[in-house]
Amino acid sequence: xxxxxxxxxxFKREPRRAALGVGDDCALLQSAPGTQLAISSDMLVEGRHxxxxxxxxKLGHKALAVNLSDLxxxxxxxxxxxxxxxxxxxxxxxxxxxxxxxxxxxxxHDCELIGGDTTQGPLNICITIxxxxxxxxGKSQALLRSGAKPGDDLYVSGTLGDARLALEVFxxxxxxxxxxxxxxxxxxxxxxxRVALGLALRGIANAAIDISDGLLGDLGHILQQSGxxxxxxxxxxxxxxxxxxxxxxxxGLPGSQIALEQWRSWALAGxxxxxxxxxxxxxxxxxxxxxxxxxxxxxxxxxxxxxxxxLRLVDSQGQALxxxxxxxxxxx
Amino acid sequence: xxxxxxxxxxFKREPRRAALGVGDDCALLQSAPGTQLAISSDMLVEGRHxxxxxxxxKLGHKALAVNLSDLxxxxxxxxxxxxxxxxxxxxxxxxxxxxxxxxxxxxxHDCELIGGDTTQGPLNICITIxxxxxxxxGKSQALLRSGAKPGDDLYVSGTLGDARLALEVFxxxxxxxxxxxxxxxxxxxxxxxRVALGLALRGIANAAIDISDGLLGDLGHILQQSGxxxxxxxxxxxxxxxxxxxxxxxxGLPGSQIALEQWRSWALAGxxxxxxxxxxxxxxxxxxxxxxxxxxxxxxxxxxxxxxxxLRLVDSQGQALxxxxxxxxxxx
Lengths: 332, 332
Fold this sequence. Notes:
Two copies of one chain form a homodimer. By secondary structure, chain A is α+β, with helices and mostly antiparallel strands. Helix content of chain A is 35%, strand content 25%. Chain A folds into two domains: 3-140, CATH 3.30.1330.10; 145-321, Phosphoribosyl-aminoimidazole Synthetase, Chain A, domain 2. β1 (27-29) of chain A pairs antiparallel with β2 of chain B, so a sheet runs across the interface.
């Protein structure tokens, strides 16, 4: 199968929203009046972002999910994406499953594939995604990293640290009962982009980011770009590890022997969570709760933004805890 | 150096046109009223699209040039691009030169870097580029592959086949004098995207494509998508190999011994030319000449679009020539 047959068979569909889709030198996309385009690119490399053994259907899901998560963090409505794909060889079963997983998630978010590239090379998946953000009275409604204000509550969506737990099992450094592993593995391989929550938080949240490199590292970007500091109550985050709840509710599971410090570390610096970390005024607590409800997404308040710069970690008694967590960096 | 320092040092600049550039979850780009966005992605892989020994400055140029060429083929004005980069390691000298070559060409086309991704992995460069096309009275002014009409002249810009000649020298299948190789090598490593010509051809050309996989292969896309056929006078294309002119003008050069059939093959199916192949009505010949002049780009008429489907190759006497040329395909 040649390059053009491959595109036609697995990836070409009739454009619905785009003025022109796959098959010309460029795709054509027209923004609605009074909107701007939110654009993000993510590149996934075998061995770095996914294991070579991963189910290609789940990989297709994840490749788009991490991009949708960036739109969610900006409060942008998904519109379209391009896919550039380097493949070692044409493997029809792999392409079948990969494209199914990819396009199923795309359909769920009404986000259409409008173009891209295919080439031979070490497996590499690069998606660039486009979303729409309203501009009201000249002001973008996008959620940014730079808007956090002293006094804001700090929130996180969903669950934390499970992807890292699964990675440790894959690495062989940890052994957990099958139900715990399956739960964690699904969070690692098929993260849920919090698009509905991001949309619901427009006009409510002051700042937002998606957690890809670990909660504290990504919080650092908000603090730096907003020129503020924060206090995080560590165990409110550590309680958000879904696998931990499972261990706790099944006291006989050996996983319940995992030390508190370990849960804390996975929650604060695990990486690959694709949850939203955001800040909002104390006066907006009811609105945040409503946004969580309308988007059917759990939201947990884990701390507060403060004037003094720097990050302070405390336990449930308010006692200071050391910050010895390092976030994920591809080059260090 | 970590991922964020790397981005800051080599790739982060103040946005001029974008509402938000590098450094948040998404970039924000607002289209001008009455325009649509032309979008294209190209992925370059070491060993497929460039040799591992290439000067990184030239690689930076080429990575953006092949994307600008897609905008040119649509008649789109360059606006912005994202860069996703997988690097085996952080090599500061390499990054210095690569970013210089990339950003110099970006500046020359007033096309700004607004976001992207960096990760560790086998060297891979994925650029997604954004251009602007006017929409007049509800009709996009983009040049498409599908607009060719029977009777149209068929034109090609610039020069053909030199990149392939250089590749053959690198492969060791050919030996040519140094001046011939240097000329061909610069065409292979630093192609010139025909952006100004593409813009000048809006409203004049009926169809256009950029030649990346070889003239005949890319012409095939125009014919198929327009539902037409064509006759190409082969030696009008073969005369456009710049290295051939150099050989001819320096009769003592051994390169002048290269057979006519070889020049024809490189011109028709060499690949990596990044010239524009376009069609326009016979009545528009003066306008095409003016577009060539205003964009300071050579344009050569090499054939004609016809009603009967299929591709016919002829010599200067109108005698049929066999088409035994195959265009480049990454998977066959």
